[in-house]
Amino acid sequence: MKVRVVEKEAFKITGMKKSYLFREDENLREIPKLWDEVNKNGTVNELLSITVGEVSGILGVCVDKSEEADKNMDYWIAVASEEESAKYEKLEIPASKWAVFEVHGPMPYSMQNVWQQIYSEWMPTSTYQQAGYISFERYTEDDPSSEDCYSEIWIPVK
After folding, report:
1. What's the pTM value of the predicted model, to 2 decimals?
2. Going from the N-terminus, what domains does the chain have, and what CATH number goes with each?
């Protein structure tokens, strides 16, 4: 597993969000369906047209809300952007030190496998600890069904 650690200033994202439960792996089943929907209905292309900043591509942003009784996470499909939009919501991603993990292979399985490796292998043996409740996936313009697809997982660490 390839990982690098980077410092990043705060930045804003613009996009749409849905809430999911971790219970019974609802998030693992339902988030790929959301991606299918936004890829088919043009939302991804619309968001890409307003992206600005160092963090390029489409972002899948996980906001852990597990301390709340009614939901466990918000999942955003968004882009880095300062642009105001009546159609989309905004969220600020705080400045942080980030562990950036490379993901290679077709979606969603490659992404889900790397998430599992991070928490079962890397976190228990690393000198870093997770430092925040927002993490994100960065998707490039590669074909998501390709064995050569490249994407990343960004986790705040201390």
Report:
1. 0.90
2. 3-157 (3.20.80.10)
